[in-house]
Amino acid sequence: MPADVARILQEIESVSGCSRFGRVTAVLGLLVEVGGIEKELSVGGRCIVESRDGRQVPCEVVGFRQGRALLMPFGSIDGVGLGCRALVSDSQPMVFPTEAWLGRVINALGEPVDGKGPLPKGTHGVPIRNNPPPAHSRARVGEKLDLGIRAINAFLTCCRGQRMGIFAGSGVGKSSVMSMLARFSGAEVAVIGLIGERGRELQEFITEDLGEEGLARSVVVCATSDEAPLMRRQAAYMTLAVAEAFRDAGCNVLCMMDSVTRFAMAQREIGLSAGEPPTTKGYPPTVFAELPRLLERAGPGLSGSGSITGLFTVLVEGDDHNEPIADAVRGILDGHIVLERQIGERGRYPAINILRSVSRTMPGCNSPMENELVNHARRLMSSYDNMAEMIRLGAYRKGTDPQVDEAIHFQPALEAFLKQGKREATDLDNSYAQLAAIFGIEQWPPQE
């Protein structure tokens, strides 16, 4: 090769790559309007806005209006003004988890926030906004999964790859139930997403509720309530992406998210800022489009891979279990666990209302004897619940209805069975054995 040609090629290689950028044309509320690069961008694309004080603010494209791109920031837009540069980012957000991530706490961008140093990078990357596996290629729901809570194990049996919702108002014990599931479940890995949590509660949950035992096999993804709506929304996507990475590695993952409602609220802020029309309770249409896209990512993987068992909490506003988000989530998931404030006020925790809760894999996953035992207990609980007011008032006379008499007799023992301490674990076999012992069955399963 001639020397002149080699020198020219060397100079070309030394030239830094060109960058495409536009300029900020307007800032309104949470939105940053950018012109000059609208044809280079698409919805979901990324930009870096340079503020006047030199900060780089990552942003996402949420829409277009009058030939301008509408960006929403992942952080504070203090210092961003007219004329600031907005650089196009071509990178597709990916996450690369490994087993070394267990015991760590990360933010919505996959960065460590626990002060334990940088995170190692795995070889297998997963897009943060991934698509669910094709429905026709997914494996079926697997065998029963021990969750360590006897009320759930016995009455609301969950299978590997099932998706359940935990519906409750504020302060009814959702975090305590999640911590018990993380410590006691039979899953190999737990991925916990804390979406829109109060800042002061994060350390309490990690150190007291989760503890060293639960944290050792968990990855915690957090976005506190003071963070930008994009960060809160992305924390939910990050939670599922980390779970998918472990699932693809062959693990059976327990994915828990608290809460789907705050994810929906973050999407509501994004949609309304972008100019979407509000519908029921102010939620725009994209909220109800994003919910199934998020929740369908949990479940069984492809044949030969692991599974993601999803447990998603839903914060019901004003204890209204028929509000729009609760209604939408209930229709997507494979069952729901209802925590009731009145039960908690009686001092029985976890405050699960068995009669209002359902697992859609039951009774197919149980043996005939297990179904008979559970159905008998449910009938007695239902009979007592129907007559509870008359019993408390003393208006019911013993002997009027034999089934109600039986329900009254067994009610204290059933209530004690449903009550469980935060540090107490009961596996699947013992859950059925303890329930059978209430009805005088000494050996479980009974001998043929």
From TrEMBL:
Please state which protein family the record places this protein in: Belongs to the ATPase alpha/beta chains family.
Described by its record, this protein's role is as follows: Probable catalytic subunit of a protein translocase for flagellum-specific export, or a proton translocase involved in local circuits at the flagellum.
From the UniProt record, which GO molecular function terms apply? ATP binding; ATP hydrolysis activity; protein-exporting ATPase activity; proton-transporting ATP synthase activity, rotational mechanism
Question: Mind telling me which Gene3D superfamilies this protein's record contains?
Answer: 3.40.50.12240
* CDD domains, alphabetized: ATP-synt_flagellum-secretory_path_III_C, ATP-synt_flagellum-secretory_path_III_N, ATPase_flagellum-secretory_path_III
Keyword Protein transport assigned to the entry: answer is yes
- Superkingdom to which the source organism belongs: Bacteria
Pfam family of this protein, just one? T3SS_ATPase_C
User: Is Ion transport a UniProt keyword of this protein?
Assistant: yes
Localisation per UniProt entry: Cytoplasm
Q: Region entry Disordered: which residue ranges?
A: 118-139
The protein's Enzyme Commission number: 7.1.2.2
Q: Where does the record place a coiled coil?
A: none
What is the protein name stated in its UniProt record? Flagellum-specific ATP synthase
For this UniProt record, the keywords arranged alphabetically read as follows:
ATP synthesis, ATP-binding, Bacterial flagellum biogenesis, Bacterial flagellum protein export, Cell projection, Cilium, Cytoplasm, Flagellum, Hydrogen ion transport, Ion transport, Nucleotide-binding, Plasmid, Protein transport, Translocase, Transport
